[in-house]
What does this fold into?
Amino acid sequence: MFKLGIDIGSRNTKVVIFNEHTKSIEFSDCKSTEIFILSGVNKLLHNAFLASGINKNELTAIGVTGYGRKLFKDATLTISEISCHTAGCLYYFPDAKTIIDMGGQDSKIITLTDSGKVKDFVMNDKCAAGTGRFLEMTAMRLDCDVSDLSAIASKSTKELKLNSTCVVFAESEIIGMLSSSTAPENIVRSVHRSIAKRILAQMASLVWEPPIVFTGGVALNQDIVKCFSESLSYQLITPPDPEITAALGAAILA
It folds into this structure.
C-alpha cells in the first residue's frame, strides 16, 4: 500500500511516503543534503517513519532519483529526474503540457504529449545562471536568506538590467550596484528578471505550450513566478510544495 520516494539533490534531500491505495501523500519532508549523503538520507528516513507511524516493512516499493540516486542501494527502482518531475507534476496537474524545473544546480524544461508522456526536454547543468545558485549568490551579497528574496523583490520600484549572463560577472555587477547605493529590492528584481530571461532562452529550442508548471525549490519564490509569468505571457502554476515533486514522482513510479 505504501511506496517511498527519495530525491537526493545537490542541495536538498526530499522524501515522500505515498499511499498507493488512496493515491495520497502520507508524509513528506526535506532536509539539506549532508556531506555524507547516505548518512543524511538515513536520518531523514528514520524521522519519516517515526513521524508517519509507517514501518519500513510496510513499504511495497522504493523509488530514488536525483544527483545522488546511484548511491542508494536499497531502491527497487532508480529513476531519472525528468520522469519523476513529470509524474509528480501530473499528479497535481493532469493537463500540464510544459514543466519548468529549477533546482540548486540545474534547470530543466520538459514538454509533454497530450497523453502525458515526455516529448522533449532541455537541461542546463553547466552554468549557474538560471539555477538556484544564482539566488544563493545574490542572498549572500545582500546578507539575507534565500527565502527572503521574494519579499524583498516585491518592493521593487525601478527596473534594472543585469548586463552579464554569467553568474561570476553578474556578481561583480551586483557588488558595483551595492557600492553605488542601489536599492536591494531593485537588485533582487533584476536578478529574477535575468533568471527568467535565461529560462526563456532555454525554452526557445522547444515547441512548448501551456499549461506550464513551475516546480523545484526555486518555485517557492513567488516573485520569480511573477517574473516568469510576465516573460512568457502565461500564468505559471506551481504545486502546493514544489520542492518535493521529484520525490513524489519517484514514489508514484516505484
Notes: The CA atoms of residues 120 and 206 lie 7 Å apart. Residues 1-93+243-254 form a domain with the Nucleotidyltransferase; domain 5 fold (CATH 3.30.420.40).
